[in-house]
Amino acid sequence: MLEFDRLEIRQDDFALTAHVSIPRGAHLAIIGPSGAGKSTFLAALSGFVDPAAGRIVWDGTRIDGLAPAERPVATLFQDNNLFPHLTAARNVGLGLRPNGRMSARDRVEVEAILSAVGLPGMGDRKPGQLSGGQQSRVALARAVLQDRPILALDEPFAALGPALKAEMIDLLHGIATRRGLTVLMVTHEPADALRLGGQTLVVAGGAVTGPFETGPLLADPPAGLRDYLG
Prior knowledge:
Helix content: 25-40%
Distance between the termini: 33 Å
Structural class: alpha/beta
Shape: globular
Order of helices and strands: EEEHEEEHHHEHEHEEHH
Domain ABC transporter: 2-230
CATH class of the largest domain: Alpha Beta
Number of domains: 2
CATH architecture of the largest domain: 3-Layer(aba) Sandwich
CATH superfamily of the largest domain: P-loop containing nucleotide triphosphate hydrolases
Radius of gyration: 18 Å
GO molecular function: ATP binding; ATP hydrolysis activity
Organism: Palleronia sediminis
Strand order of the largest sheet: 5-4-1-2-10-9-3-8-7-6
Largest sheet: 10 strands, mixed
Strand content: 25-35%
Protein name: ATP-binding cassette domain-containing protein
Keywords: ATP-binding, Cell inner membrane, Cell membrane, Membrane, Nucleotide-binding, Translocase, Transport
């Protein structure tokens, strides 16, 4: 269970509260108006924003005081954060060995995850030699290879076209399901939330609410979300 226990985030005149519980293995979209705090909420989970009050608890253990590297969270950002001078395999390998020193066994594991995301035999290519979709696959492979039970994604596929984005969300869903990962994905697109399946958190009006079943939520959204969805 992932719990945000009376969490409060404050930055200048911005304030956001969250008091929600998320079952282990759930796949949740995070939606809401621009500027409502979706990315800030995710950053608090990942350890890049310090809450002003409250707790973040994973499986009974408080994690909000831990550094990002010590948390059970792998984070994937929109820009992928790939190193242009490193090959795809070496970029992925950073998920295993942040110092870049991989053993023969590590290299086998990297090749296996590259194959799992549809990039077999492409480990020697650098990011500049890959398409946008292929770069997203490399970034996803690196995040998964960190072997952390929570995967936090901040609009990771926003730059992709609709068909490729749908393909990546399906890939994410499949990998996360097989590995039993808890997924939280920020998106602006209701279609992405529906495709991810499961449930949705709503960030609006200074609060995080939910989880809600995604289909019924989008069919009859509350006022704050209805205004955003138009």
